[in-house]
Specification:
The protein is mainly α and about 190 residues long. It has helices spanning about 1-30, 35-60, 70-90, 95-125, 130-145, 150-190.
């Protein structure tokens, strides 16, 4: 049993290290080749929509006898497949347009939800100014995202690169801490 646990721990440690190194490499690649990274993002969006749509269609038919509104899942799957095919056909424009509008939709929606939360906070008598400030900035950012699609794409790619590098470094450090913990545990047990 102990050997099995140690084997699983080692596998987890190596998995964390490899994921970290992959994240760092991905971030560096994005910084070194931003145009190719944007094209890859467009391809990922198209393939993701296609794959997600296929899975949705299969799940809808599997749940047909159990779920009353299975047709909604089927419709969602068909829309995903249609978008995926269209995004591959109109590659990369449609996928990149989707990324810009999705980002804008997310920011504007988060902004309106933030305004609602700020008003609730105000009604409860708690500090609400920062929540309202965030909400207004999110709405302005959403409008800006639609008006400046190039900057939006560059920001998304920069965010992914930063996340890859910072997250990768954190994972590599975590793998090192796992190694340190393993050494300390071996000393204490021995």
């Amino acid at each position: 049993m102990t050997t099995e646990i140690k084997s699983l721990y080692n596998a987890a440690k190596w998995g964390v290290l490899i994921r970290g190194l992959f994240g760092i490499a991905l971030g560096i690649f994005i910084i070194a080749r931003p145009a190719e990274s944007i094209a890859a993002l467009a391809l990922v969006i198209a393939i993701w929509a296609l794959g997600d749509g296929i899975v949705g269609i299969v799940n809808a038919f599997q749940l047909r006898g159990v779920v009353e509104h299975w047709w909604a899942m089927l419709l969602s799957g068909i829309i995903g497949v249609a978008f995926g095919i269209a995004a591959l056909y109109y590659y990369p424009v449609l996928s990149l347009t989707f990324a810009v509008y999705w980002t804008s939709f997310w920011l504007i929606t988060a902004g309106f939800v933030g305004i609602f939360v700020a008003m609730q906070e105000r009604n409860m008598g708690v500090s609400w100014g920062w929540t309202l400030t965030f909400a207004v900035i999110a709405i302005i950012g959403g409008v800006f995202a639609v008006l400046r699609p190039g900057i939006t794409l560059a920001s998304l790619i920069s965010l992914i690169a930063t996340f890859g590098i910072v997250g990768g470094i954190a994972l590599v450090v975590g793998a090192g801490r796992m190694e340190s913990f393993e050494t300390q545990f071996a000393r204490a047990a021995g």
